[in-house]
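Data availability (excerpt). The following record was deposited with the supplementary files.
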Amino acid sequence: MLLIYFALINIISFLLFAIDKIKAKKNQWRIPESTLILVSFLGGGTGSLIGMVVFKHKLSKKKFTLGIPLIIILNKFLEIFLFIL
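Predicted structure:
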């Protein structure tokens, strides 16, 4: 069940970065940065990082270039802990 959750949250996170990049190019309403970070924190860090690289999005913002990898590390520790239980 957890594997399905992590797969879905990472797909959602990746898609949010894609949508935000498209909206940024069109000068439209954007997805709040807090939402992107929250979804990453909830387990979508890998999807976020892949989305950042694929779409070349948020790469100049330190809160993303440093924060997302840190969130991934924290999430991996949490995943290990949950799988041990």
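Summary of structural features: The chain has one domain: 2-84.
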